[in-house]
Design goal:
It is built from 2 helices and 42 strands. By secondary structure, the chain is mainly beta. The strands form 6 sheets. It has a 22-stranded mixed sheet that branches. Strand 35 and strand 36 form a beta hairpin.
Length: 464
């Protein structure tokens, strides 16, 4: 019994006399445009462009990626001796011309000197060979974009990603396998990657080091819906010693962010506003200048963005900290009415966190910081704090690497949380040099399960 033919089958026929492969394909069997035809349809010759459309499916754009090479096609200088900004701009212009078809750009190993920011089109797939380097070794190799000491900061970023309208079929690029080295430029704040509006951006295996702004920054776009970075998928990022902070997300909703390591940045490691229905998995914040994780309200472009439109949840699973200057995990965000009738505030769900030595900048024993710090003292009348649920917390003290002072002073702090639920459940250990937990102000809905051991001091001693 012969197998059933379920769709068009292509074979290569002889090339035309002019050598062009454009008519090199014939369909045997079903005519894809004739749904009534049986599996033994007529032979049909189609052009290569038609074949791309058939493979790509409905919606246009085709399914074949047209790969170009930044060095081979656009003559970028991989030695870093001359600027590669024009080469990258030309590649991005070609991608814009091909939109919405996917446009692949390979970037071989090398050091690519950048003298100006570049807006990356949504259909761009930019793939380097991988990169490493950081403030410890000061050695950068693989595929690295280096911000020049003579960089033009007018764009405010090295790579910009902007959604020009509402969610569309192609709204954000795919970026992988490269590094950004910003050590040479210190004059003004320049972000490594800037995302504006609902740009569905995929970032994988990217290393951002010593930018004068944020490693990754985002901005709201009030004319779009949703207004913030939406539907992002990130995995395997390192953000090291960026001056303003590690990652700032404004309405970075419906996203999956995994295995991101932020260390040594000047401000918050993570600064988050309105990131509802987003899941952070196995992410870390270490040795940053303010909070490790900061769930807060963010001012940007003359507006303040709270969690008004954030409903559902924001989830942190297996996330960790060590030796951030202030508290490890800080929540001081507010929400107002929610997005529409019958909706409520975004729930902050923290599963299995491990926080260590936070508050180290204030010599923890005399400072006021904690591993977990929920503070709604600045939440004004008419607003509410977010509900915070922590399951299976581990908060431990430890001495600093430079001084012997112990941090944090408290394992958990609850400050003026009012009626907003703040609960710690499951089994765990919460340590603080002065006390395992403390509270102040009105905290009518704060509780810690008896299955969580609390301990004060600089050691944990087994007693059972």
């Amino acid at each position: 019994m012969s197998p059933e033919v379920r769709g068009p089958v292509a074979k290569i026929s002889s090339y035309p006399n002019n050598g062009s492969p454009d008519n090199a394909f014939e369909f045997l069997g079903t005519d894809p445009s004739n749904t009534s035809e049986g599996p033994t349809g007529t032979t049909e010759t189609v052009t290569l462009s038609t074949l791309k459309s058939v493979i790509g499916g409905a919606g246009g754009g085709g399914g074949l990626v047209d790969w170009k090479d930044l060095v081979g096609t656009y003559s970028a200088d991989p030695t870093g001796a001359t600027s590669s900004s024009t080469a990258l701009a030309n590649a991005c212009s070609a991608a814009v011309s091909a939109y919405p078809a996917p446009f692949g750009l390979t970037v071989p190993p090398g050091n690519y000197l950048m003298t100006q920011g570049q807006l990356l089109p949504g259909n761009l797939i930019m793939a380097g060979a991988g990169a490493n380097g950081g403030t410890v070794t000061h050695v950068f190799n693989g595929t690295t974009f280096t911000i020049s000491s003579s960089f033009n900061p007018s764009a405010g970023y090295l790579f910009g990603i902007t959604a020009t309208a509402n969610e569309t079929a192609v709204n954000g690029p795919i970026l992988s396998g490269f590094g950004i080295n910003g050590a040479a430029y210190t004059a003004e704040a320049v972000d490594g990657i800037s995302i504006t509006g609902p740009a569905f951006t995929v970032i994988n295996l990217v290393n951002i080091v010593q930018t004068s702004g944020w490693g990754i920054n985002s901005h709201a776009l009030s004319t779009a819906s949703p207004i913030g970075a939406d539907g992002m998928v990130w995995d395997g990022l390192t953000i090291d010693s960026c001056v303003s902070g590690g990652v700032r997300l404004i309405y970075g909703e419906d996203s999956q962010i995994s295995n991101v390591y932020i260390i040594g940045c000047g401000g918050d490691g993570w600064q988050l506003a309105g990131c509802d229905n987003t899941h952070f998995t196995n992410c870390r914040a270490e040795w940053n200048g303010n909070y490790g994780w900061h769930v807060t309200n963010i001012s940007d472009g003359g507006n303040t963005y709270d969690w008004t439109y954030a409903t559902g949840y924001v989830m942190f699973t297996g996330c960790s900290t060590d030796a951030n200057t202030q508290s490890g995990f800080r929540v001081d965000a507010s929400w107002q009415t929610g997005q529409g009738s019958g909706t409520g505030p975004c729930v902050v769900q923290v599963n299995g966190p491990c926080f260590r030595r936070d508050g180290i900048g204030n010599n923890g024993a005399v400072g006021s910081w904690a591993g977990i710090d929920v503070n709604y003292s600045a939440v004004t009348s008419g607003n509410l704090g977010l509900p915070v649920y922590v399951q299976g917390p581990v908060v431990t003290t430890g001495p600093g690497d430079v001084t012997a002072s112990m941090s944090p002073r408290y394992g958990v702090i609850a400050t003026s949380t009012g009626a907003a639920p703040f609960r710690l459940t499951g089994g765990g250990l919460v340590m603080g040099f002065s006390a395992g937990s403390t509270s102040s102000g009105t905290v009518t809905n704060y509780s810690m399960a008896s299955t969580i051991d609390t301990f004060a001091g600089d050691n944990y001693n087994y007693t059972g």
